[in-house]
Amino acid sequence: MVKLTPPAHQTGLQQQIGAALAEAREPLSRDQVSEIIRQVMGSVEGDIAATDAKFYREIEALARYIRTAKLEIAAIRPKDITSEHIPTATDQLDAVVGSTEEATNKIMDECDVISAIAGGLPPEQGEKLTASVTRIFEACNFQDLTGQRITKVVGALKHIEQKIASLMVALGEEIGAPPPVPEESDPEKKLLNGPQMPGQGVSQDDIDRLFD
Amino acid sequence: MAVDMNMNILIVDDYKTMLRIISNLLKQLGFKNIEEATDGSEALRKLREGHFGLVISDWNMAPMTGLQLLKEVRADAKLKPLPFIMVTAESKTENVVEAKTAGVSNYIVKPFNAETLKTKLVSVLGQF
Fold first, then answer.
1. pTM
2. Is A82 an 8 Å CB contact of chain B?
3. ipTM entry
4. Each residue's pLDDT expressed in tens, for chain B with a length of 128 residues
5. What percent of chain A has pLDDT over 90?
6. Which residue in A has a C-alpha nearest to residue B58's C-alpha?
7. Residues in A 130-169 with any Cβ partner in B closer than 8 A
8. CA–CA separation, A136 and A114 (whole Å)
9. d(CA B115, CA A138)
């Protein structure tokens, strides 16, 4: 039977492993264990403290940012936007649609009158007048398009109103106390309210009575 | 074949002023019998009850849109061959393609003039 001898480098490695295992089997002294634990704990505590500090700083910055945002949102008076500005804007736009429709119908009423007159005129004049009335009818297309565009704008405003209402709910009561609005100092500007909604302003008859 | 100027024409639009504009323009072109509806469902009911030679309809109406009306007309064996012109502010290519796919006879974009209306009527009904 042939006996195999391991190569020289393999014998050296086995010796090193053997020495390491022997060293590992040697029990550590109490002092050595205490020193290792102290070093590990010191290292771990130090790292957590640094991470915490950074984390707390970021949380604090975020809280400051939210506080500032709430103040800024309160300053734009979101309750006024949903309870006053947007409803007023949509009412005004509805009134625009109503008044242009009314005006367009009056224009077309008069076109009908002119068309009837045109029918009784000599052919050349009648045709000219009829062609003119046709162009007025064509121009009245604007009312339909204006109405559709305004309806789209009203839809967009209502969407904004909903989003603001959701934002107010999400941010809570803190934004419910807006800063006071400075009163308009120019007395003339206080009088500039624009056209009134149907039934809201005084009528010409009411005004005339003031002059009687 | 000559166009029957006495045919019943149904115009459909939710804006009263637009109904009046189209009605007046049609009368000036010589058409005499014009009926009106303010949405697709009212139009469909009138179409099923009466005898019409042409529909001129808006697209954007509630509860039934002009496109839905067109699809109902094309799905109805009796109404299927009825000429149907869409007159609408919806002017995107996808709208026109959708209406064409649904079987619209012609398509007019608002605002339009009497000349455009006449041209489209001639292309759908023939010379008058």
1. 0.68
2. no
3. 0.79
4. 788 999 999 999 998 889 999 999 999 899 999 999 999 999 999 999 999 999 999 999 999 999 999 999 999 999 999 999 999 988 888 899 999 999 999 999 998 999 999 999 999 999 88
5. 25
6. A144
7. 130, 134-135, 137-138, 140-145, 147-148
8. 11
9. 10
C-alpha torsion angle, residues B79, B81, B87, B88 (rounded to 10): 70
* Chain A contact probe: residue of B11, B16, B17, B65 with most A CBs at under 10 A: B17
CB B49 within 8 Å of CB B78: no
From the list A101, A130, A134, which residue is nearest B17 (CB)? A101
Contact present, A96 and A150 (Cβ < 8 Å): yes
Q: How many CB pairs under 8 A join A and B?
A: 53
- Distance between CA atoms of residues A180 and A191, nearest Å: 21
User: Smallest CA–CA separation between A83 and chain B, in Å?
Assistant: 28
Q: Which residues of A touch B60 (CB under 8 A)?
A: 148
Which two three-digit tokens encode residue B101?
């796919």
Higher pLDDT, A65 or A26: A65
Report DSSP letters for B11-80, one per residue.
Answer: EE-S-HHHHHHHHHHHHHTT--EEEEESSHHHHHHHHHHS--SEEEE-SS-SSS-HHHHHHHHHHSTTTT
Closest residue in chain A to residue B112, using alpha carbons only: A138
Single-letter residue type at B36: E
**Cβ contact (<8 Å) for A108 and B60?**
no
How far is Cα B25 from Cα B115, in angstroms, rounded to an integer?
A: 10
